[in-house]
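Consortium newsletter contribution from the modelling node. Members have asked for a concrete example of what our holo predictions look like. Here is one, prepared for the 3,4-dihydroxyphenylalanine complex that several groups have been discussing at recent meetings.
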Amino acid sequence: MSDIKQIEDIFLKLIASTKNIDDLESIRIKALGKKGEVTKLMKTISLMEEEERRTKAPLLNALKDKIIQNIEKKKLSINTDILNEKISTEWLDISRPSRSWQKGKIHPISQVTEEIVEIFSDLGFSIAEGPQIESDWYNFDALNIPPEHPARQEFDTFYIEKLKNKIGEPNVLRTHTSPVQIRHMEKNNGVPCRIIVPGKVFRSDYDQTHTPMFNQLEGLAIDKDINMGHLKWTLEEFCRVFFDIDDVVLRFRSSHFPFTEPSAEVDIKCSWDDGLLKLGQGESWLEILGSGMVHPNVLMACNVDPLVYQGFAFGMGIDRLAMLKYGIPDLRSFLIVIFVG
Ligand code: DAH
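And here is the predicted structure:
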């Protein structure tokens, strides 16, 4: 019995004096592990005489329970001390501003494209798309630009090698979004229609106002009763909303495009006071887009009867409109890539 009491005293003292969880664990193993002191004593129970067992077994069980309870209590107290120590020494200033980080922003071209698309959507136009690598047929011939036509040279076209040398095989990087007019009208339900075609186009040209890749937006409306008045109203309405000028003044200047007849280039009224461009007022004009009534040859190339259907088309440079609206002086800045380290 004195044995049990002695062991109890030793372990309770040890437990009381420990300051950390690791030491506490070693004490637990020493007492209750496979070869621990208390375990050894517990094993003797089965070897005891009946009478001895009756008195000693409850004492040994009580010893074991006491040590377990003391260890658990001590564990709790050590953990509470650790937590209190942390709370008193570590702290977070939750009023500090967070670290700054580099955020991506929508590219001005994407933003302007979205703005334009939204305006034309409100006017009942839907979006059409076409491939960036085109055939001569869609990029030129079907748009009333036959091989000998001087306009072919004006386009600074990037040609790519024909693999099979077949007519209709894609062999040019499209120089404008106009080929999508043809692709759309060719489809059975291609007319009547009101579509816009935003997209990348390519020309071999590079300076402050030209980049080899730029963005255009084509417009096409075909129906049985369409005239220049509809074209004029549509473009005025677009400019009024896009440039946010209520009394926008446009000038339709007679021009020539092979795919429209008559054709008009559209200028917006502006001023250049102190070198600062102001749209919507003043004595100057700034060209913003090309337009016209779709040429009968273009309709016929798509099997659309020009005696039944007419339509208007227009094409604008998205980059140019973005430069005008947001005062961006150099087209090439749209292509600068910023690497964030
Ligand atoms: N495709 C012409 C160009 O890239 C722009 C254009 C002008 C498109 C008049 C049209 C149009 O649809 O009617 O220069």
